[in-house]
Write a structure and sequence with these properties.
This protein is α/β, with parallel strands linked by helices and about 375 residues long. About 45% of the residues lie in helices and about 15% in strands. The longest helix is centred in the C-terminal third of the chain and has 24 residues, at about 290-310. The protein binds pyridoxal-5'-phosphate (PLP).
Length: about 375
């Protein structure tokens, strides 16, 4: 194709997509092995469960997937998984929308409520990167609520729901709240979330993104079922990628009013959740002992990371998730590089406008020992 034709095509792409910068995922282990020729690499960059999925999930996949299954489309309605989720949360299955990861749910909501133009999505500064991307892709305006300041005594860089209220302009057609938030790990008390929902105009949908729900202390859990009954504009997004250890299979879901679920299901791509994912998610819900083990490991190792990072003079943001975001007190890029060269992948935060920070996923005891030991060497040279 001629350059002129290519340019002409690019110019016809939607303005939102042309202005987009793609999501930067954590570096895959193989990529570092290829680039630096190091064999022994650990990845603590994408908030995956270091224990992986329940062994029962792996067995369920091995036992039940037949030759025939792989050749047939999955159940596009996800009947069995939805019934299983409905039972687990004691909720009507018509309130459930299945996603290819919960990112799908965020995208569906952005598409439904922002695509018609002149609309804005409201979210916090330093919130999950998918919110600005989904907003920009639909040509929406990003209404960014300033986060709490770094010297905040309670929740540095946390969501500030008063700032959300102040940013509630008439064009705001969608609100994203991440609780706990990624990349900071910060959280909101359930009563504050409820008070905020009371103040949001009833026609503005609110996505409460709870990807790290299971890692929270139980007393911080919002009562989703009660809130869904009270607020028909609420969508709760959950995922099997984090504590359930199924990140590779891409399964998440939304809980909402049946009407919002119906809207999302109209634009849901056919067969967006594959057969292995459907089956694995069901088996994963059935093994809550694995969740309990994973949460316990996370709790003790997160406390250890926070303690040891603080001892190294690096300040940690508070976290209710399976990662710790910490302040290096200077440009963190050389520290990130030094860790990579030693085979330790963590997440740089420059793309979040936090260039002094790094985010490390809580790993196994051995992985954390290696991370801490390597970091200590890197920062002292
Ligand atoms: C990881 C994450 C998700 C979901 O990821 P999926 O793999 O698409 O389910 C959603 N929100 C936040 C804040 C996350 O950190």
């Amino acid at each position: 194709m001629t350059q002129a034709a290519t340019t002409a095509i690019l110019e016809r792409a939607s303005a939102g997509v042309r202005g987009l910068k793609a999501y930067e995922p954590g570096m895959p282990i193989e990529e570092l092995q290829r680039e630096l020729a190091i064999d022994d690499v650990i990845k603590l960059a994408s908030n995956e469960n270091p224990l992986g999925p329940s062994p029962k999930v792996v067995k369920a996949i091995a036992d039940s997937v037949t030759h025939n299954d792989l050749g047939l489309y999955p159940d596009g309605g996800g009947f069995r998984l939805k019934r299983r989720i409905a039972k687990f949360w004691d909720i009507d299955a018509r309130r459930i929308t299945l996603g290819n990861g919960s990112s799908d749910i965020l995208d569906f909501m952005a598409h439904i409520f922002l695509a018609s133009g002149g609309r804005a999505a409201l979210f916090s500064q330093y919130a999950f990167a998918v919110y600005p991307i989904a907003t920009q892709a639909e040509g929406g305006r990003a209404a960014v609520a300033p986060a709490r300041p770094l010297d905040d005594a309670v929740m540095p860089y946390g969501h500030d729901l008063r700032a959300f209220e102040a940013a509630l302009a008439p064009d705001v057609a969608l609100i994203f709240i991440a609780n706990p938030n990624n990349p900071t790990g910060t959280w909101l008390p359930p009563a504050e979330i409820e008070r905020f929902l009371e103040r949001v105009p009833a026609q503005v949908p609110v996505v409460l993104d709870e990807a790290y729900y299971e890692y929270q202390d139980p007393e911080l859990h919002v009562d989703s079922r009660r809130l869904l009954d009270r607020f028909p504009n609420l969508v709760v997004a959950r995922t099997f990628s984090k504590v359930y250890g199924l990140a590779s299979l891409r399964v998440g879901y939304g809980l909402s009013s049946p009407e919002l679920a119906d809207l999302m299901n109209r634009i849901r791509p056919p067969f967006n959740v594959n057969s292995l994912g459907l089956l694995a998610a069901e088996a994963a819900l059935d093994d809550q002992a694995h969740v309990t083990r994973s949460v316990a490991l996370n709790r003790s190792q997160r406390a250890r990371l926070q303690h040891d990072l603080t001892t190294l003079g690096l300040r940690c943001l508070p976290s209710q998730a399976n990662f710790v975001c910490f302040d290096c007190g200077r440009d963190s890029a050389p520290i990130h590089r030094g860790l990579l060269e030693a085979g330790v992948i963590v997440r740089p935060m420059a793309s979040y406008s936090m260039p002094h920070f790094l985010r490390v996923t809580v790993g196994t005891e051995d992985q954390n020992t290696r991370f801490l030991g390597t970091l200590k060497k890197v920062i002292s040279r």
